[in-house]
Design a protein that fits this description.
Elements lengths: L7 E5 L4 H12 L3 E6 L2 H15 L4 E5 L5 H15 L4 E4 L17
Parallel strand pairs: 1-2, 1-4, 2-3
Length: 108
């Protein structure tokens, strides 16, 4: 995708680190950005910073624990309802707790 102006980007883990850097970069290219994160404090700070960068209406912040599939589905619907169809999804969220890896995963 060469031109991101007017596109919608959804970033999980978007309130800190790589996710926040992605949000800044996509906004700089003219995209509308939805950032989702499990940390409400970091999410509030990121939303304030990103809104200052882009102006109101271009940034949506959602508290989201990506392990909760139902909440994730609701978040996706909210992003599309408020910003439009998602063009780019950055599944950035995730942590690995040492010794917990064997217990991780979805039961299908």
């Amino acid at each position: 995708m060469e031109n991101l102006a007017g596109e919608v980007v959804f970033i999980t883990g978007g309130a800190q680190g790589i996710g926040l850097a992605l949000a800044r970069a996509f906004l700089a290219e003219g995209a509308a950005v939805a950032v989702a994160d499990v940390d409400p404090g970091a999410l509030g700070s990121a939303h304030a910073e990103l809104t200052k960068q882009s102006g109101p209406g271009s940034v949506l912040a959602l508290e989201l624990d990506v392990r909760d599939r139902d909440t994730f589905a609701c978040a996706a619907e909210e992003v599309e309802a408020r910003l439009g169809a998602v063009s780019v999804l950055c599944n950035n969220a995730g942590i690995r707790v040492p010794d917990a890896l064997p217990q991780l995963g979805y039961d299908l």
